[in-house]
Amino acid sequence: MRIPNYDIKLYEWLNTVIGKPYIWGETDCGTLVREGLKLITGIDPFGNLPYWKTEMECRQIWDAMGGVDKAFTEIFKFKKIDRNYIQMGDVSVLEVRDLITASLIINNERMLFSSVDKGVEIRNLTQLQKLNIRFYRL
After folding, report:
1. Which of 3, 55, 97, 111 holds its CA 20 to 30 A away from the CA of 130?
2. What is the DSSP letter of 20?
3. 40-73: per-residue pLDDT in tens?
4. What single-letter DSSP state applies at residue 134?
5. pLDDT of residue 107
6. Residue 80 — φ and ψ, nearest 5°?
7. Is the CA virtual torsion 118, 124, 127, 131 positive or negative?
8. pLDDT tens, 95-130?
9. How far apart are CA 6 and CA 8, in angstroms?
10. C-alpha 41: how far from its chain's center?
């Protein structure tokens, strides 16, 4: 369920986070997804899941739930969706080597992305088209 004017609130928030450096528990990919979805739905999508402050804490929390994909579908009840049906507020999950990253979809072409080297930025989904990306909707 999306709250009224969620798109306006989301864009206002995006303007405050774009360009910030990557900080665990503040601007890492999971925290950005969590905070963005709270603006869209009015609830914390990850419920009582603790906030993390380090990469190790983050990995331990998600590993304890069986990984990101299992946590999204079985614990948090996200629905896996096809790339052709993504919309604002959906989540992408991407694996590169041993790293799993999640991003908030802004529209069917762009997503909010956070990386250690570039911080928080908007990326075009077509740049990542050939990678193994899965999409979820709350």
Report:
1. 55
2. P
3. 999 999 988 999 999 999 999 999 999 899 999 9
4. E
5. 84
6. -70, 135
7. positive
8. 766 677 889 888 878 999 999 999 999 988 877 666
9. 5
10. 14
The 10 Å Cβ neighbour count of residue 39 is 21
Higher pLDDT, 9 or 95: 9
What is the C-alpha R_g of the chain? 14
Q: Which amino acid belongs to residue 133?
A: I
- Determine the pLDDT at residue 74: 94
Determine contact, residues 103/111, Cβ cutoff 8 Å.
yes
d(CA 68, CA 62): 6
DSSP string, 4-51: TTHHHHHHHHHHHHTTPPP-TTTTSHHHHHHHHHHHHHSS-TTTTPPP
For residue 36, give both structure tokens: 């963005």
Q: State both tokens at 117.
A: 């080297």
Residue 92 near residue 134, CB atoms below 8 Å: yes
The pLDDT value given to residue 32: 95
Burial, 127: exposed, middle or buried (Cβ in 10 Å; 0-12, 13-18, 19+)? exposed
Cα maximum dimension of the chain: 39
DSSP single-letter state for residue 44: -
